[in-house]
Amino acid sequence: MADIILNGSGLLSYTCVPNIFIDKYMTNANGEFVKIYLYIIRCMDQSRQSCSISELADVFEHTEKDILRALAYWEKVHLLHLEYDDNKEVTGIALELPDQTTAAAPSKNTQPANDYPPEQIEDFQKDEGVQEILFITENYLGRTLSSTDVCTILYWYDKLHFSTDLIEYLIETCVSNGHTSLRYMEKIALSWADSGIDSVADAKRDHNMHHKDAYTVMNAFGISGRNLIPSELSTIRKWTGQYAFSSDIIKEACRRTIQATGKASFEYADTILTNWNRSNVHTLNDIVKLDTAHQKSKSAGKSRESAPRPSAGSRFNNFPQRTYNYEQLEKKLLNTTR
Fold this sequence. Notes:
The protein is mainly α. 59% of the residues lie in helices and 3% in strands. Helix 3 crosses helix 4, helix 6 runs parallel beside helix 8 and helix 10 packs across helix 12. The N and C termini lie far apart (97 Å).
């Protein structure tokens, strides 16, 4: 395929994004979180050094809780620091960029976000808790951990600030469901971090809640014989968390998806539910109202298209027509000719 040439000659101003953010943090973060972080950097411009949670929520059409969740995530990975007042409301945001030297290009055998030098790994392994979790992981997986595996687990412990108990619960849950890939587990770990889950109790509540939601979607889509992948679970979390839709509304979207596409398409259902969220749908009755309004608009459009237009030969019929007494006209004509 041909190379793509990027042309930015029309830009009048710029927002600088640190390379370390792109190399080590952006790829593993929730897309909405990334947009909020970039917007905050934009607001750090000399002409704009203040904003509010409500303003951020309006810009991105999110709830204030969504904005706070994003800020909490970036604070957790140490890219910013939040300041609070006595009422525990955010009053300040300070960027805390890590050492740029850690952003060097990783080797082919390591993942950018999980790259630790050998001496740092040795220091971590002196911790009894780390020793225990590495030993437990090898027992669950039935194999010796590679250096990449160790770095992945250290990333959960060091960067996501997961306790050893939470890491053990993560591995145990994934393995019991037939998922022995640490890459799969990492996606679950990142989704937990995005959601602010930092204890086994939180993880269990999340699992129980989303297990029910996942079963609802799987049943509506007719999915059997496999577990949902992390991206599908993340999409369901958006429907139930960010959009706060009930199971009835989600099932209706799944039904319409099957009817329209003939298959279980999470992308198609997500389009439906995103549109309903923008239209402030909260109940099934709201959907009925939307359908009715759409049908009326569609019918009105068809009526305008099918309405006959006056032809050129009949354009004079648009004027009021006169009526005549032809008998009186005949008599008048006879009188004038005599």
